[in-house]
Amino acid sequence: MAVAQRSGRSRYRLILLILTAVTLLTLDFRGYGPLETAQSRVRDILEPVVSAVDVVLGPVAEVWTVMFSYNDLRSENEELRAEIDSLRSADLRAAAQQDTLDRLLEATGVTYVDDIEQITASVLRDSVGNFDDDIVSIDVGHRDGVAPGMAVVTAAGLVGRVETVDTARSTVTMISNPNLVIGVRLIDTGDVGLGHGMAGDPTKFVVDTGLRWPETGDLSELPGIGSAVVTAAGSRYPANIPVGRVASVEPAEAGLVQLVTVDLAADVDDLGYVTVLSQVPVDEAPVGPDSPFPEQSP
Questions:
Q1: Pick from 247, 241, 235, 242: which is nearest to 204 by CA?
Q2: Where are the alpha helices (DSSP H) in 109-228?
Q3: Are residues 4 and 71 in the same domain?
Q4: How many Å from the N-terminal Cα to the C-terminal Cα in the chain?
Q5: Among candidate residues 61, 81, 108, the one where a domain is terminated
Q6: What 3-state DSSP class applies to 94?
Q7: Can you tell me the distance from the alpha carbon of 169 to that of 201, in angstroms, rounded to the nearest whole number?
Q8: In a domain, 298, yes or no
Q9: What is the CATH number of the domain that holds 260?
Q10: Helix H or strand E segment including 230
Q11: pLDDT truncated to tens, each residue of the chain (298 aa)?
Q12: Which of these, 75, 125, 160, 226, is most buried using a 10 Å CB contact count?
C-alpha cells in the first residue's frame, strides 16, 4: 500500500514539474534575466525526459508516417513501372524498325546490274496455298510490271525466279529448289556449267553439269576454294548476278567432270524483302555446238 502511495505521489510530482516547466518555457519576458535563467535550467532538467519520449514514440511516429504515405509510394511505384514499360516498348519498336530498314537495304542495295529496272517486293512466306519451302509469294504482280521468269535478287545475290504472276501477287521459286537449273560461271577459271540447289540444304548449290575434270590432272586448273560463282551470260538471267562461293571441288562420273559445291550468297530462309529485276527473260537459253550449255538448257 505504501509503495502504491509513493508511486502515486511520484507521478503527481512529475506532472506538476512538467506543467511548471511548460509554463516557464512559454512565458515571454525578453530581457528579464531571472526568467531566462529559470527557462535554461528547466530545459536542462527536461532533456532526459524528452530524449526518453523520443526513444519510446519514435517507432510509433515512423509507423504512422509509413501508414499514411503508403498510398503515395504505391502510386509513385506504379508510375515508375509505367515509364519503364513505355521505355521498353519504345526500344522494341526501334529495334523492329531498324531490322525492317536493314532488311530493306539488303534487298534494294543491288549494285551488280546496270540499266535494269528494279521492283522492290515484300516476301509473304506464309501465304495461303503455299506448302513448299522452296516457293514464296511476293506482294507485286502484273500491275507492277512483273512477268514469269524474271530474276529475283537481294544485295547479296540471286534468290530465285518468278514462277507465276497474278495482278498484285507472284510466286517465286527459290534458288534452293533442286529443280531450278541455273547457268553459272566460275570467276576463277571462266568455265560455265549448270547447277541447282542441294536437296535438304538451302545454303548449298551444286554445279554438276558442263565442267570437265582437267585432262592433264593438273589440279591448279580447278577453281579455288572461296572463289566467286555468278550467273552466266548465256543463261535465262542477267549476267554476273552473284550466286555464291566455291566450297569444294570433287571428281564425278569416273573422274571426267567436276562436282563443285557452292555456298549460296543469299540467305533464302530469312527474307523480308527482295528485288525483282524487270528484264524480259528468254524462254530458253541458246543450245547447240556454240552454246556454253550444250547438254541442258538452264
A1: 247
A2: none
A3: yes
A4: 122
A5: 108
A6: helix
A7: 27
A8: no
A9: 2.40.10.350
A10: strand 228-231
A11: 555 555 556 666 666 666 665 555 555 444 545 545 555 665 555 556 555 545 554 565 555 565 556 666 677 777 777 777 666 656 655 555 555 555 555 666 788 888 889 999 999 865 544 456 789 999 999 999 999 999 999 989 999 999 999 999 999 999 999 999 999 999 999 999 999 999 989 999 999 988 888 887 788 889 999 999 999 987 889 999 999 999 999 998 777 889 999 999 998 888 888 999 998 776 555 444 455 555 544 4
A12: 160
Q: Which amino acid is at 127?
A: S
Residues 37, 29: contact at Cβ < 8 Å? no
The grid coordinates of residue 293 equal: 550449255
Amino acid symbol at 250: E
Same domain, 163 and 190: no
Contact status, residue 187 vs residue 227, Cβ threshold 8 Å: yes
Burial 83-115 (b: 16+ CB within 10 A, else e): eeeeeeeeeeeeeeeeeeeebeebbeebeebee
How many Cα atoms occupy the beta-carbon half-sphere of 31 within 13 Å?
A: 0
**3-class SS of residue 246:** strand
What are the cell numbers at 47?
532533456
DSSP three-state, residue 152: strand
Q: Which residues contact 173 (CB under 8 A, 6 or more apart)?
A: 134, 135, 160, 161, 163, 179, 180
Question: How is residue 259 written as a grid cell?
Answer: 562436282
Domain coverage including residue 125: 118-173
Output the CA torsion sign for 63, 66, 71, 74: negative
Which of 244, 143, 142 minimizes the C-alpha distance to 202? 244
Alpha-carbon separation of residue 94 from 101, 108, 271 (angstroms): 10, 21, 20
